[in-house]
Every structure is written in structure tokens, then in C-alpha cells.
Write the C-alpha cells for this entry.
Amino acid sequence: MLFTDPQLQTGQSYTVKYGGTISGGTNWNGYYTGNVTYTGGQSTNVNVNSMYTTVSAGGGGW
């Protein structure tokens, strides 16, 4: 899986929730922040074992 967020930290564990209903908060391309209420679905813990960072001066692409 690929997650992108400047606040993610190597060695930390995060909860990923999926398949339920989300209400409240702020939706930014499917990424919810703020006062979010999650009902139903499932959740799992994800451990961040490594990070990959790249900076490009333009041109786009990978």
C-alpha cells in the first residue's frame, strides 16, 4: 500500500478503516480529517516500516 501524508512517521502504527460509512470531517480526495465519525466496516493496524521521499524539479512522472 502507498499512503502519503507528511505527518506519517517511521516506526509508528496507524489504524486504517474501510468498508463503512464516514460522516463529518473534511474530505480531501478520500482522505478524511477533523471530527470524523466512522460506523460499520472493518479496521486494521498498519505499521510504517520505511519511507520513500522524492523531489522533482519538474517534468512530472515517477
Notes: Residues 13-47 form one domain.
